[in-house]
Write a structure and sequence with these properties.
It is a single chain. By secondary structure, the protein is mostly helical. The protein has a domain of 120 residues: Orthogonal Bundle (DNA polymerase, domain 1). 56% of the residues lie in helices and 2% in strands. The protein has a two-stranded antiparallel sheet with strand order 1-2. Helix 2 crosses helix 4 and helix 4 packs antiparallel against helix 5. The radius of gyration is 25 Å and the shape is globular. One of its GO terms (biological process) is response to light stimulus. Keywords: Developmental protein, DNA-binding, Nucleus, Transcription, Transcription regulation. This is ALOG domain-containing protein. It is found in: Nucleus.
Length: 176
């Protein structure tokens, strides 16, 4: 066996050892959840009649998947006719449906969007990044905030809070 072949086989075995070590290392919570979400979405597509392959998947399949997940939700979303509509802490139970929380759906889409690209999909054709998905999530967010009577507010960046606390310095124009 030549020295080149020995080096090649040694490099190959060290590569495979490195790959095995990477596979054996425990995944982070995020990576585990992303893998689980990806497998769940893949199973959902396979269970469609007829089954949908990943290259055929589009934003409508993603929207259907999000609606399908609602049946497993744990967030009470009051309907317009409910006496508790708009109340953040209703005093009694009602028959309004349980849905997936907006934040959960938003995080799910983020993980699936990343997983799609990790599995060879391009960012241009990523169905999870489609504008229709963003519109759907915005509508869910608004609907849930109205139903609970709690508006979602954007968190201020820390930089803005620091600047707001500093006393205003007179500008050159004000001094003149």
């Amino acid at each position: 066996m030549s020295t080149e072949r020995l080096n090649d086989s040694a490099e190959g075995s060290s590569r495979s050892t490195t790959q095995k070590q990477q596979q054996a290392a425990p995944l982070s919570r995020y990576e585990s959840q992303k893998r689980r979400d990806w497998n769940t979405f893949g199973q959902y597509l396979r269970n469609q009649a007829p089954p949908v392959s990943l290259p055929q998947c589009n934003c409508n399949h993603v929207l259907d998947f999000l609606r399908y997940l609602d049946q497993f939700g744990k967030t009470k979303v009051h309907l317009h006719g409910c006496v508790f509509f708009g109340q953040p802490d209703p005093p009694a139970p009602c028959t309004c449906p349980l849905r997936q929380a907006w934040g959960s759906l938003d995080a799910l889409i983020g993980r699936l969007r990343a997983a799609y690209e990790e599995h060879g999909g391009s960012s241009e054709t990523n169905p999870f990044g489609n504008g229709a998905i963003r519109v759907y999530l915005r509508e869910v967010k608004e609907c849930q905030s109205k139903a609970r009577g709690i508006p979602y507010k954007k968190k201020k960046k820390k930089r803005n809070q620091i600047k707001a606390e500093e006393p205003a310095k007179p500008s050159k124009l004000q001094a003149a």
